[in-house]
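@channel sequence for tomorrow's demo:
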Amino acid sequence: MDETKRPLKIPPEFTMYAEKNELFSLYEAQLVEKESGIHKIDTDDLFTVDIEPVKQARACVDREDDIPGDVLGALVKERISKKDCADNGWMLVGYPKTRDQALALQRHGIFAKHVVFMDAPDMVLIERFMGKRVDPQTGGIYHLTFEPPESPEVTRRIKPLENQTEKHFRKQLLHYHRNVEGIRAAVCKGTTKIINADQPKSDVYAQVYHFLCQQSRSVAPQCPRVILQGPRGSGKATQAALLAAKYGLVNVSMVELIKQAIADNSKVGNMMSTYIDKKMMGRKTNRHLVDIGPLPDNIVLKCLVERLSKLDCATKGWVLRGYPRSRHQAEALSEAGYAPNRVYFLECPTDTIVERLSLRRTDPVTGQAFHLIYNPPPSLEIKRRLKTHHKDAESAVDEDVLSYDSQVEELMDYYATSQGVNADQDPHTVFESIESLLTKPLPKQTLKATL
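structure tokens (generated this afternoon):
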């Protein structure tokens, strides 16, 4: 790497060599131990944020209902953006309480590095709850058996908590048992730990602290280089955004790269502008770049390599969509030193793709996007003025699918370690499937194909 040139570009051989020779494992160590300072976020703390959803959340708590997932996500996102949480970290206590809340936090880009589940028998929890007392003067919490007041004066004035009945607490336990498995399934497996809470507090603390101070081990690539393949409408953009949000990968879209290069009047952008303006087609390549026009493969690759060689891609990893579209492009990408270590093909029936794309509409007044089934316009007035993009016409969608189908077998053959994912599901279910594949070793039968 030439340090005299700016911006610094990391040669692709660096990460390839490190991964091949397992150099990343040399740097695995426990996190530097930290004592206090992490900010605790509970219900009362969430209600201190100054945004509109607080009223709705407070009303739900007053009714003893679950806070809607998106409302909770908005509150937590706003709270953790404050300086105290940004500087010292945060600890969310008592949430999420349902699978919907867990998924909503992920939709808002909130992913906890550690998730601790405290487990204890119901009878132990009931005994702890029923023995709690509060001092109305100081707010101190005591327990008649495990932590009684030290002075007779405090003993005389302590009172039971509000709604401190066994029936009420059993109702809360039932709600927890109904939802806990869904919550565990929604969070990343490598970040969770179940700790036995039926032991002294010091022992529980020691186990929790030890878990927080260790790096989570994973067989996922240390520097992921992910390619998402699939026809237009299969959900590549959605999955790329989720992967980028959770794992910190750089989200690279080939179409957006080309548009940005042209807008910036860069050297590569000017080369592409010449082909687009003069319609120098040469041969029919990159059919899917309908808004940009067909471009020579070498120019497109040069634009992509410039982005992948930057420092953030080399250190964080990347998730690429929209390229390669043919075996020739895939071979050129590998020869340039940017071979992926994970390739996923999003498989989706043509009927579903047509439904997703042909029913999309855009409001020419506000620019807002709608879908006639999944996200219909709120009023008849808006519905009447909606427009359909020419790319979303059913005939154009069918043509795109045929173009993709003509190349997909060659791409699958070239990427012998690629894996298929059923994309005809809820986006977060698809993401969970991709995530489970990313954090597992490649199947042995595909590894043999590369020997």
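heads up for whoever presents: The CA atoms of residues 120 and 197 lie 5 Å apart.
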